[in-house]
Amino acid sequence: MKNNLLAPSIIASDFTRLAEEIHACESAGADWLHVDVMDGHFVPTITVGPLFVEACKRASKLPLDVHLMISEPEKYLEAFAKAGAGNITVHVETCPDLPKVLKIIQSLGCTAGITLNPSTPASALDSALPFTDLVLVMSVNPGYSGQAFMPEMIGKVEEVRNKLNAIRSKAHIEVDGGISAETLPLMKSAGANVFVTGSAAFKHPQGTLEGVRALKKIAST
Asked: Using a CB cutoff of 8 Å and minimum separation of 24, what contacts does 204-209 make?
């Protein structure tokens, strides 16, 4: 099993203090910074683009974990890679030829990931699993921060882990949506090893530093 990693979702941070928030994540032991890119088409919300990723890259030495919740992601892969993405993850629902898109991402020097929505069965990943470096299982419906964790996704993580083990894949399993001190251990037990956290980190009563530090400790133990 790979090391357990924590990836605070920068979309949940205070954008007026972006550099401070990023530095707090670094100081607290975060492993990656997760960036949710939404286009107002594939999901209802519009968030950020390559310029934001570039700003995060200037402010941080952490790998940038860019999650493209957008239609036709293949049109924008190069722009996000040039902006500084370390990982680029696309949705199975948006890519008719998923293996081809994964290979393009890898050719750009990035780790290639695939995501599936809660309503999409794990079997939709089968053709692409041999080519992927990461599988992101959404434990909320994508598009809005702060949603409630969907416990039925624990079983999907177990299913994906079994599929990866069956082909002896070393791909990460990442989870995103409602990940907190209570839900992170459940997903870790199911086989996930990368944990995206938004509100639980950035809305912590004692601030971002303590929020990230507490979750990193849980992920690591």
From this structure: 207/24, 208/8, 208/13, 208/21, 208/24, 208/25, 208/28, 209/24, 209/27, 209/28
Question: Residue ranges per domain, the chain?
Answer: 5-220
168-194 in b/e form (b: 16+ CB < 10 A) is ebebbbbbbbbbbeebbebbbebbbbb
pTM: 0.94
Edge-first strand order for the sheet with 134-138 is 5-8, 194-197, 172-176, 134-138, 111-116, 87-91, 64-69, 33-38
Instruction: Return the exposure string of 84-117: e unless at least 16 CB atoms fall within 10 Å of the residue's CB, then b.
Output: bbbbbbbbbbbbeebbebbebbeeeebbbbbbbb
Write out the CATH class of domain 5-220. Answer: alpha beta
CA distance 79 to 51: 9
148's CB contacts (< 8 A; 6+ apart) are 140, 178
User: Are the beta carbons of 66 and 49 closer than 8 angstroms?
Assistant: no
Tens of pLDDT along 70-115?
999 999 999 999 999 999 999 999 999 999 999 999 999 999 999 9
Task: List, as one string, the DSSP characters of 59-94.
Answer: H--SPEEEEEESSSGGGTHHHHHHHT-SEEEEEGGG
User: What are the catalytic residues?
Assistant: 36, 176
